[in-house]
Amino acid sequence: MEKMKLKLLYSDLKPELEMIEKELEQAVDSNSHLLNDASLHLLQAGGKRIRPVFVLLAGKFGNYNIDVMKQVAVPLELIHMASLVHDDVIDDSEMRRGQPTVKAQWNNSVAMYTGDFILARALEYITEVEIPSVHDILSKTMIEVCRGEIIQIEDKYKLDQNVRDYLRRIKRKTALLISSSCELGALVSGTDEKTAAHLRRFGYFIGMSFQIIDDILDFTSTDEELGKPAGSDFIQGNITLPVLFARKDEEIYRLLKESLYKELTDDERLHIVKMIRNSPAIKESKAISERYLNKAIKELSYLPKGTANKTMRNIALFIGKRKF
User: Fold this and answer.
1) How far apart are the first and last CA of the chain?
2) 47/10 Cα distance (integer angstroms)
3) Per-residue pLDDT for 103 more than 70?
4) Does the keyword Thylakoid apply (predicted)?
5) Cα→Cα distances 91→101, 206, 238, 255, Å
6) Which stretches does DSSP call E strand in the chain?
7) What backbone torsions phi and psi does residue 100 show, to the nearest 5 degrees?
8) Please, are residues 200 and 303 in contact by the beta-carbon 8 Å criterion?
9) What is the pLDDT of residues 132-145, one digit of tens each?
10) Are 241 and 264 in contact (CB under 8 A)?
11) 100 forms bridges with which residues in the sheet?
12) At 64, phi and psi to the nearest 5?
């Protein structure tokens, strides 16, 4: 239901998104049955496709041509997909979007090469764009995403890290790719530099808010709603914003510390989830997300009014309230 509400916000883009969906299927097609099956397994599990949506919306501020826009929208979604496949290996995740992960369905080797293959396809696709700054921005973004993944590994199980560590991590993990989606959409459609800069900042702020809400939902949603066990981030040693705020409570801090390296039963996992869900940490985390959302909406106020601006604003408002 929530996913349907989000799709309704950008229903004007339905024909273009259907075209991009077909392009994604073609992009992961190969002469290897194993690679095809593993790639399509993830692709067909669905997703919000928020990165292609932002590419297309950003393009509406310039000279919009879907044949040009898809050259950026497709690789950005492929890069995101590849990072998910690799993430599931690193986090040893069994479920994603209600389906077994590629590593669970096959094994770690297949998952790693599938991720590499999808990433290579993304690079192959973006070579069609003959704007040097597009390649410069995308390559720098990918470097930062990789740095973010390494930092996430280094920060695992560190309960005493600070909020700034967390924010730097999610900037690289999520915000920069969404920011680049907006900026690259603007560049390939030929907007002026000022417009591209506002869109880049809009994407960054939305990306920060999006990831914080994701981390909140890990504690406020059910296993069924998430398509994976609630509290998965904590179980995998990833210390997110709700945990950083919740640890101020001595009882919760003690419980978290005792549980970090332990193999938890379902009852123990759900007890931790309940403790954090009922703590002020959720409200405090939402307040931080709200600050980023307000900054994103402010960036839109500097851009020309119109359908794309309105849709971006509605998506921003939806992200703050989303329940999936």
Assistant:
1) 9
2) 15
3) yes
4) no
5) 11, 25, 9, 22
6) 95-96, 99-100
7) -60, 140
8) no
9) 999 999 999 999 99
10) no
11) 95
12) -75, 125
User: Which residue carries 């296993």 as its tokens?
Assistant: 223
Contact 293, 209 (CB under 8 A): yes
3-state secondary structure of 161: coil
- The neighbouring-strand residues paired with 99 are 96
Single pTM value for the model: 0.94
Dihedral class, residue 97 (left if φ above 0, else alpha if ψ from -120 to 50, else beta): left
| Cβ count within 10 A of residue 151 | 15
Query: What is the model's pLDDT at position 298?
Result: 98
pLDDT tens, position by position, 253-284: 999 999 998 899 999 999 999 999 999 999 99
- Report the alpha-carbon distance of residue 323 to residue 225 in Å, rounded: 8
Q: What is the dihedral of CA 47, 50, 51, 52, to 10 degrees?
A: 90
Per-residue pLDDT at 9 exceeds 80:
yes
Q: Are 272 and 255 in contact (CB under 8 A)?
A: yes
Angle among Cα 286, 173, 82 to the nearest 5 degrees reads 130
What is d(CA 158, CA 152) in angstroms, rounded to the nearest whole number? Answer: 10
Taking the CA atoms of 100, 106, 108 and 112 in sequence, report the sign of the dihedral they define: negative
Burial category of 186 from C-beta neighbours within 10 Å (exposed 0-12, middle 13-18, buried 19 and up): buried
Instruction: Decide: 212 and 289 in contact? Cβ < 8 Å.
Output: yes
Q: What is the DSSP letter of 157?
A: T
Helix (H, G, I), strand (E, B) or coil at 131: coil
